[in-house]
Amino acid sequence: MMHRTAKTNAALDIEGLSVAAWIGDRSYRALDNVALSVARGEARGLVGESGSGKSLTLRAVMGLLPANLRVTAGAIRFNDRDLLADGGKHLHAIRGTGIAMVFQEPAIALNPVMKVGRQIVDGVAERRGFGARQARELAVELLAQVGIQDPARWVDAYPHQLSGGMRQRVMIASAIASKPEVILCDEPTTALDVTIQAQILNLFKALKTDLGAGLLYVTHDLGVVAEFCDSLTVMYAGRTVEQSDDLAALIAAPAHPYTRALLAAVPRIKGPIRRLRGLASSAPSLTERDQTPAQALIPCGPGRQVAPFTAEDERFFARDEEV
Ligand SMILES: Nc1ncnc2c1ncn2[C@@H]1O[C@H](COP(=O)(O)OP(=O)(O)OP(=O)(O)O)[C@@H](O)[C@H]1O
Question: What are the ABC transporter domain coordinates in residue numbering (predicted)?
Fold first, then answer.
């Protein structure tokens, strides 16, 4: 079997990443042989049903796995340096500076008792040796950059004084403060109403162009993917089952039966929603999955890979339950 080769221009490259989770004395594989890359200036969508491992993949990159989860195999390279190789020392150095993360719930991720301006520039001002005035000026500048009107007024506010959309902008300001090369976004617009979602998405588009950052963008919304992403990785049951550097090519001709089921669910409302629910409940149990050997992705075109699948998988994903 051919193995996937790392993209040469990738800023972030994840190869064969497996994560085990412990619940009591039982363990299972929560991520299984995950592989994906993000280049500078690329927006890669990361999709898959709930529980497929999207957030864990991002958390593993940031070294923020819950205490009962551990990386058991694989490499996470940032600019060709393995972040797992030195016990996390290099990761510690580049977390927030080289790679930053924007979480789904800014209300939880922000510190409620710290003024937003200070939160945005805390680390970066210290690294650059800024005094209080310079730090405040930088915070105001960053707030303006993420589209907060009258930033000098908001720099001294606390998170609870801001709307949900403003809080998400503050999170983004904090993520871009040190001009990271890669930004990991975990459903950053899910908690917001539709008009604010569109504004935040436009902000991400501008960041991609202006900063030249690579974005790994987790979403459930295939409309967002179609509008914003250049490339796409599809996860199912802890694995990357299909991906392409060319979003249009993948959408035009999905190779894996799960990707086909996912895309088929978009234009039709009846049926597929039920079907996707059915998939979640009848998917192989984690213990069963743990016994299956990890299988590498197979190249199936330029910049494109798919996981091997069987006729049984094909039948499983093709079921069309009546509503
Ligand atoms: N703290 C934990 N302890 C044990 N298992 C966990 C823990 N967190 C996640 N998992 C396991 O990892 C799997 C993947 O979780 P993850 O949060 O990455 O899914 P996701 O694709 O981001 O889902 P969603 O779209 O709902 O956010 C879960 O199904 C669960 O089995």
Answer: 12-262
Nearest residue CA, atom 30 of ligand 1? 51
Check if 46 has its Cβ closer than 6 Å to any atom of ligand 1: no
124-128 long-range contacts (CB < 8 A, ≥24 apart) are 124/97, 124/177, 124/178, 127/97, 127/178
CA–CA distance, 216 with 10 (Å, rounded to integer) = 12
Phi, then psi, of 5 in degrees rounded to 5: -105, 140
| Ligand 1 mean position, distance from CA 278 (Å) | 18
| CA max distance for the chain | 65
- Ligand 1 atom with minimal separation from the 235 CA: 21
Q: Is the model more confident about 21 or about 127?
A: 21
Q: Which residue has the higher pLDDT, 250 or 126?
A: 250
**Binding site membership of 48 for ligand 1 (Cβ less than 6 Å):** yes
- Prediction pTM value: 0.84
Distance 54 CA to ligand 1 centre (A): 8
Q: What are the structural domains of the chain? A: 10-98+178-238 (3.40.50.300)
Q: 């719930």: which residue's tokens?
A: 105
C-alpha to C-alpha distance for 136 and 154, rounded to whole angstroms: 11
Q: pLDDT tens across 185-225, in order?
A: 999 888 777 888 888 888 888 888 888 999 999 998 888 89
